[in-house]
Design a protein that fits this description.
Layout (H helix, E strand, L loop, with lengths): L2 H11 L5 H20 L4 E3 L3 E8 L2 E4 L6 E4 L2 E8 L1 H7 L2
Antiparallel strand pairs: 1-2, 2-5, 3-4
Helix pairs in contact: 1-2
């Protein structure tokens, strides 16, 4: 499911809300998750899973075109750990 499909589904299930309102709700939801992760926090949605970040150390990489070594700086990457209910449903 992509973001636009999510918006359409929420619109269909909530006829009292306009398309713009649903769009703002979805934007707010995702923006809050992004903001919390950017602050170094964690977001847990019970029954679904937890979003967090992990640190990657600096390393030497290779430019695939030239084969030259390049320095890849340290960075934080998003990480999702699925909840128990998702794992159970996927492995039925």
């Amino acid at each position: 499911m992509i973001r636009s499909e999510l918006v359409k589904k929420l619109e269909a299930e909530n006829p009292g809300l306009t398309g713009e309102e649903v769009e703002r709700i979805v934007d707010l939801f995702f923006n809050q998750i992004i903001q919390r992760l950017a602050e170094g926090g964690r977001v847990e949605i019970r029954g679904f899973g937890a979003f967090s970040t992990r640190s990657r150390n600096p390393r030497k990489g290779r430019n695939p075109r030239t084969g030259d070594a390049v320095d890849v700086p340290a960075k934080r990457v998003p990480y999702f750990k699925p909840g128990k209910e998702i794992r159970e449903r996927l492995n039925k």
